Amino acid sequence: MDLPKKVKIVEVGPRDGLQNEKENVPAEVKIELVNRLSAAGFVNVEAAAFVSPKWVPQMATSREVMDGIARKPGVIYSALTPNMQGFEAALAAKADEVVIFGSASEAFSQRNINCSIAESIARFEPVAKAAKDNGVRLRGSISTAFGCPYQGDVPLDAVADVVARMRDLGCDEIDIADTIGVATPRHTQAVMETAIRAFRIDALSGHFHDTYGQALANIYASLELGISIFHSSVAGLGGCPYAKGATGNIATEDVLYMMNGLGIETGVDLDAVAEAGHYISQFLGRKSSSRAGNALLAKRNG
Ligand SMILES: CC(C)(COP(=O)([O-])OP(=O)([O-])OC[C@H]1O[C@@H](n2cnc3c(N)ncnc32)[C@H](O)[C@@H]1OP(=O)([O-])[O-])[C@@H](O)C(=O)NCCC(=O)NCCSC(=O)C[C@@](C)(O)CC(=O)[O-]
Question: Where is the Pyruvate carboxyltransferase domain (predicted)?
Fold first, then answer.
């Protein structure tokens, strides 16, 4: 199959990327980051999570962030919402899209959202209905679709089951997430083919962490199947608080460099993203983990 000519990159750095930072990242820094990212051309930026601040303290500034960003017309600003309390907060903060986040592994579901998979779907039902009633886009995210830090292997049937449940809730888009970055290309294709049998291919996305350095290869393997939505984090920020040792998402700059080389349109300005990556890395006091981002900045600086 030919590779897609155009892909959508969902920038998840301000949420997935920063949620695990030990040091408090002030709202104004997050706001500046989101503004730089929307200016760079992303049509979807994951900016907030309305979750319990006891569970994920870094996301406690989500309302401030949503209130402070300069909204660019046409950009979808997304927020995670595990339950109705989160949905009400996201609605009040004018999120364009809410994300219900479940798991293909029972053990991870318990650690991450303190309930079983079946209980999580029951919690998502009113959120999904409220999203539809209020004209808010609904995205479903499925963690540990390729492996679980607590349970190990995750069967394909378990992924198919959660994709079907998210579909039946009315999700506009469904993310297949490699939370701990263990997938390899053929495994990626097996999981994605399973998801494609249960949901529209043009609304399925790949969310790859880069723990074992496989994320770009997994994105390429997904492109070969026709998947055309991918998540990534500027400067490769991130890690999940409930997946010890897992590194960040694949760096956005690296994905853009590959897409540009393949002649696949993204609508995003790689240099502007590299600058945004430099901005947040300087704030955090460490080097960006994006190879392409670092190479571009080194070239710029002579
Ligand atoms: C789901 C809960 C809330 C259940 O947590 P719980 O303790 O079972 O919930 P509860 O309903 O019993 O409520 C307990 C307390 O939490 C409060 N609470 C309850 N809900 C909310 C809310 N929405 N916003 C703010 N506060 C809330 C509630 O008000 C109460 O406060 P208290 O009376 O004790 O003061 C909790 O487990 C939680 O917040 N977990 C957060 C998990 C999380 O954010 N994980 C990281 C994001 S997922 C991820 O990164 C993976 C992804 C998406 O990127 C894809 C991938 O790579 O895999």
Answer: 7-274
